[in-house]
Amino acid sequence: MSCVSFAKLTTLSPHWIAHNSFSPRRHGSSPLSATRRVSLPIRASSYSDELVQTAKTIASPGRGILAIDESNATCGKRLASIGLDNTEVNRQAYRQLLLTTPGLGEYISGSILFEETLYQSTTDGKKFVDCLREQKIVPGIKVDKGLVPLPGSNNESWCQGLDGLASRSAEYYKQGARFAKWRTVVSIPCGPSALAVKEAAWGLARYAAISQDNGLVPIVEPEILLDGDHPIERTLEVAEKVWSEVFFYLAQNNVLFEGILLKPSMVTPGAEHKEKASPETIAKHTLTMLRRRVPPAVPGIMFLSGGQSEVEATLNLNAMNQSPNPWHVSFSYARALQNSVLKTWQGRPENVEAAQKSLLVRAKANSLAQLGRYSAEGENEEARKGMFVKGYTY
User: Is the pTM of this model over 0.90?
Assistant: First the structure.
């Protein structure tokens, strides 16, 4: 935040609060016994109450996030899998299918959109943002600009997009978005290097502070990739390190924890590890990491699926909700909600209703998992197929 914005906030309202002040040190006193007291301000923008309420709304019982924020290139890959060309008309048709599904709001509390989708309307002229609001689903927006090579690292990446983020976020808010998403990644086979972890944590913290200043609840997402043949204990070790750095820099940037959401990876073995872990083992290690690193002030943990099968992602989420947690433990799935939908739709208008019913089946399954009541009984083989892609990009 600039000095100008600091001055503006302090003169207009008590948005910056310091419980202590600077006092002169007594002559001869040591640093430990000095009366000089230093206190960092507690940052809270004029949107603070709204941020907290939005985060609570998204983290509401039995509901989670539908992530449809794939870039145009990635959406094109999805469409190509069912024989469709990557055109704006086809992308609009697919996203219209998803966002106009009757009854979706019973299981979905928020939807992350790509910039194109935020400004699009249905073929009947209704804004997609309004379609979501009618079902009490909070519109969100992907704000990062993607991954690029990180110089000086072990073949790792960093996430770009901070330049111009404040002005873009202000425009997204005007368009109706109320939360944001920024994805960066950490690769265990690449180390990860201390440089890559620090860069990921700092970038997430700056993004979160800028988002909150512009009325958007930031989803904090350092995805620890499934790539590798490492055991689950190694994933836990890395996850604890990453989240320790993330919360250190969130605090350094005076981010309001009550007004953020997290989108972590589940703690699993590497996708190429010789032994698969049970949902109970994954739940145990994931919750261990969260309890050691995430303050209870954070309202919601919205897990990504990261290439797990639809059923795997739901079973693991269900296992984590078998006992009370300090946070709302839920989902923010893309492929694990959309895979069956795409295969049912096949780009044909006559299949839209069946595809929407398929989306409701998956959304309801994950709603039950958020409540700890899911059973995989009756799930078909297609929903059990893994979707891991080595080196996957969005």
Answer: no
